[in-house]
């Protein structure tokens, strides 16, 4: 055992220190693309232990990578080279009571998102963050990536839902910023700085989260549309009609539906019509005064009259609502089960989604004829998961993956969008960030990183340690 391993084992005890030989379950990322054998896995049970671990690793100059639920899709929560420490927050999963009068709750970073939802059930309050990985993703990881998900267009990304934070810095210093108010302009917005920092600036240990009133009524519809242009046109009208009560506007494609139905037998498709595009629409309100179904059916009728909607149905039960959502949420799994895949998480201005899909489709077809494009995502904020499967019968992307990735990223940024919408950069997009970020942006980020972690022991492989140029 190395000196540092011995020291960490002393600090954390047998429950809190997993030696290298037993560390396998923490070593690889969700998509099994990244990871290296660690010195061991630290599983602290309190902020003071996180602080002691970071101070010891800092003194020894050994890298530490914070890990939440390890559901990140860019390889940010595992090591990029052997010998570092994985710092799992899973044992720090306590939560306080929801404060209904203030609309907030204090939680530890290791709390799993679904556990938070379940804890709030029946309280009249909700935490409006929903994503396919909510059964494993933790609050600290969601803050680390500044997660978005299906409700972000209405309630914001994680940075909009965090009121206060407690963070342990690289040398073990504890910053207590656990304020519980939205309005706090006493200097730089430190809490926001840590949202999306992917474990490179500090380790989040506690957070005060903003809660919203839980819906008293809800209506969910599944619609079939001819193509992306019709989907954008219908989505624009629906946003104007539904306003604040629109809480879900998710799209997926015919190829995505086909793959999901082929590979996941538990799924069923409730309509007789198929089209080029599908929309999952949800409206919800904490007030029970407004007839929500009326908004949906009136807009649906308008869409059919205009030829924008081919078919549609409104969920008649909670079970049917869950089945509609599952069709959308199983899109990544359907594609994974098909074989090799190439994932892109881009954002473009929502009004330009159809234009982006047309141009990106032509680009990809030119680079790899026959490549199968399976775009899905969050229509209202322009976040497109532009995922590809190899041409029918081919096992991979014929060495063109890097070229395709760069072309798609350049197209999105050129349209006023982003090449990293909600999954972050991690190790997967570190190189891309170095290529696409301006020198000014690289310098700013480098300066922040140096100021908070001069020794670069915190997750040094994520976000590209740019050369300062
Ligand atoms: C099926 C599926 C669907 C998904 N859907 C969405 C979606 O709709 N929207 C979306 O945004 N993401 C989505 N994701 C990606 C993923 O769930 C999110 O990135 C999530 O925020 C990761 O949380 P985690 O706890 O698993 O973090 P991890 O993967 O463990 O870590 C992610 C990053 O945060 C850092 N980190 C972890 N904990 C801390 C901490 N306590 N302090 C500081 N840094 C920390 C890590 O070092 C790493 O860089 C999906 C993933 C899957 C598998």
From TrEMBL:
<keyword id="KW-0285">Flavoprotein</keyword>
<dbReference type="InterPro" id="IPR016167">
    <property type="entry name" value="FAD-bd_PCMH_sub1"/>
</dbReference>
<protein>
    <submittedName>
        <fullName>FAD-binding oxidoreductase</fullName>
    </submittedName>
</protein>
<dbReference type="InterPro" id="IPR016166">
    <property type="entry name" value="FAD-bd_PCMH"/>
</dbReference>
<dbReference type="GO" id="GO:0003824">
    <property type="term" value="F:catalytic activity"/>
</dbReference>
<dbReference type="InterPro" id="IPR004113">
    <property type="entry name" value="FAD-bd_oxidored_4_C"/>
</dbReference>
<dbReference type="Pfam" id="PF02913">
    <property type="entry name" value="FAD-oxidase_C"/>
</dbReference>
<dbReference type="InterPro" id="IPR016171">
    <property type="entry name" value="Vanillyl_alc_oxidase_C-sub2"/>
</dbReference>
<dbReference type="GO" id="GO:0071949">
    <property type="term" value="F:FAD binding"/>
</dbReference>
<dbReference type="InterPro" id="IPR051264">
    <property type="entry name" value="FAD-oxidored/transferase_4"/>
</dbReference>
<dbReference type="InterPro" id="IPR016164">
    <property type="entry name" value="FAD-linked_Oxase-like_C"/>
</dbReference>
<keyword id="KW-0274">FAD</keyword>
<feature type="domain" description="FAD-binding PCMH-type">
    <location>
        <begin position="34"/>
        <end position="214"/>
    </location>
</feature>
<dbReference type="InterPro" id="IPR036318">
    <property type="entry name" value="FAD-bd_PCMH-like_sf"/>
</dbReference>
<dbReference type="InterPro" id="IPR006094">
    <property type="entry name" value="Oxid_FAD_bind_N"/>
</dbReference>
<dbReference type="GO" id="GO:0022904">
    <property type="term" value="P:respiratory electron transport chain"/>
</dbReference>
<comment type="similarity">
    <text>Belongs to the FAD-binding oxidoreductase/transferase type 4 family.</text>
</comment>
<dbReference type="InterPro" id="IPR016169">
    <property type="entry name" value="FAD-bd_PCMH_sub2"/>
</dbReference>
<dbReference type="Pfam" id="PF01565">
    <property type="entry name" value="FAD_binding_4"/>
</dbReference>
């Amino acid at each position: 055992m190395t000196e540092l391993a011995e020291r960490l084992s002393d600090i954390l005890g047998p429950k809190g220190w997993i030696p290298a030989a037993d560390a396998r379950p923490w070593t690889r990322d969700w998509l099994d693309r990244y990871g290296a054998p660690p010195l061991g896995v630290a599983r602290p049970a309190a902020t003071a232990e996180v602080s002691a671990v970071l101070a010891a690793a800092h003194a020894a100059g050994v890298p530490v990578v914070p890990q939440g639920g390890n559901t990140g899709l860019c390889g940010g929560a595992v090591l990029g080279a052997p010998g570092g420490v994985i710092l799992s927050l899973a044992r720090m999963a306590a939560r306080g009571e929801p404060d209904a009068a203030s609309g907030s709750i204090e939680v530890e970073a290791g709390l799993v998102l679904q556990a938070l939802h379940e804890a709030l059930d029946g309280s009249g309050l909700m935490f409006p963050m929903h994503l396919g990985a909510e059964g494993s993703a933790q609050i600290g990881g969601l803050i680390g990536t500044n997660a978005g998900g299906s409700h972000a267009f209405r309630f914001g990304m994680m940075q909009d839902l965090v009121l206060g934070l407690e963070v342990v810095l690289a040398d073990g210093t504890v910053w207590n910023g656990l304020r519980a108010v939205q309005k706090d302009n006493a200097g730089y917005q430190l809490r926001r700085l840590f949202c999306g920092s992917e474990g490179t600036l500090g380790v989040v240990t506690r957070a005060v989260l903003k809660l919203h009133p839980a819906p008293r009524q809800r209506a969910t519809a599944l619609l079939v549309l001819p193509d992306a242009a019709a989907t954008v046109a219908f989505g624009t009208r629906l946003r104007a009609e539904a306003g604040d009560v629109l809480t879900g506007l998710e799209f997926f494609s015919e190829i995505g539906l086909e793959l999901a139905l082929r590979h996941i037998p538990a799924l069923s498709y409730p309509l007789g019509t198929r089209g080029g595009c599908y929309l999952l629409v949800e409206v919800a309100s904490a007030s029970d005064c407004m007839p929500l179904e009326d908004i949906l059916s009136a807009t649906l009728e308008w869409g059919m009259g205009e030829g924008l909607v081919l078919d549609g149905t409104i969920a008649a039960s909670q079970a049917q609502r869950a089945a509609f959502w599952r069709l959308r949420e199983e899109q990544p799994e359907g594609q994974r089960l098909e074989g090799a895949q190439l994932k892109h998480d881009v954002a473009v201005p929502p009004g330009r989604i159809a234009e982006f899909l047309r141009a990106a489709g032509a680009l990809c077809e030119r680079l790899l004829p026959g490549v199968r494009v399976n775009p899905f995502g969050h229509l209202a904020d322009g976040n497109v998961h532009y995922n590809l499967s190899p041409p029918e019968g081919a096992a991979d992307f014929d060495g063109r993956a890097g070229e395709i990735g760069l072309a798609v990223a350049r197209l999105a940024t050129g349209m006023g969008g982003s090449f990293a919408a909600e999954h972050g950069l991690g190790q997967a997009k570190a190189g891309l960030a170095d290529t696409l970020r301006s020198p000014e942006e690289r310098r700013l980020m480098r300066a922040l990183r140096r100021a908070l972690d001069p020794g670069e022991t915190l997750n040094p492989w994520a976000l590209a340690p740019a050369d300062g140029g």
